[in-house]
Amino acid sequence: MPMAHPPSLCKDYPVSVPEIIRIPILPFNMVNAHLIKKDKGAILVDTGIPGSEKKIERVLRQHQLTFKDIELIIVTHAHTDHAGSAARIRERSGAPILAHKDDVDYYTRKVPMSYCTTSWVGKLFVKTPVPHEPYEAFEPDILLENAETMSLSDFGVEGVIRHTAGHTPGSIAVELTSEDVLVGDLVASGILIGGIAFTGHAIRPPFEDDPQTVSQELQRLVGSGFKRFHMGHGGPLGADEVMRHAESLRSLAAGRPVRGRLGHPVP
For 71, which of 41, 42, 85, 106 is 20 to 30 Å away at the CA? Predict the structure, then answer.
């Protein structure tokens, strides 16, 4: 059974200022995972599409790390480009997987993922096999519930993991005291998605359940003092651009009150 809280036998790590390392899963930063690298060891945030182990291992080696140096696997949400390699990486690293309870039925494959598209890109993308690519089912080891937060101090990092719904019901973000935040797919950047051009311009990801909730979460993060936003598609972005995007989402949601899967207005 998954644990509601982290294991009590965590090592007593000294807290250090972490380095955030982007792991490109697809070209042009179209899909990213991230490492939070400390003086000793690392935390992996997201795991890419199924079969991403070699790409993650290559970046680990570039930083004199192995899978055994991963102490925690954080999956920000249940889409296949974030959760796709989680089970295999847990097997190779021995690290626990942390996720939010509201996406757990997708992780265990009890319920098929559904998608609220945001643009013509999403409408085309959802017709391809990529978003629907099955990944190995897994039960997270550590589950956040509702608005529960978890400190990362037991893993030697100053920061917390927090529920940030809106993209999917169980989306989470990693908020670090270094003024960096890893937000999964709360926001994306660039043309289409990724780094082909206009990498500093925030856009909506191809899928998004509830733009009003996303807007509220992004505004809260900017208001809390976060300066650098690291994401699954493109980025990173600065706070001013994220706030501009959050305000545009708020206007969009207010002007088009169509019911979405979470029961909130979506475009």
Answer: 106
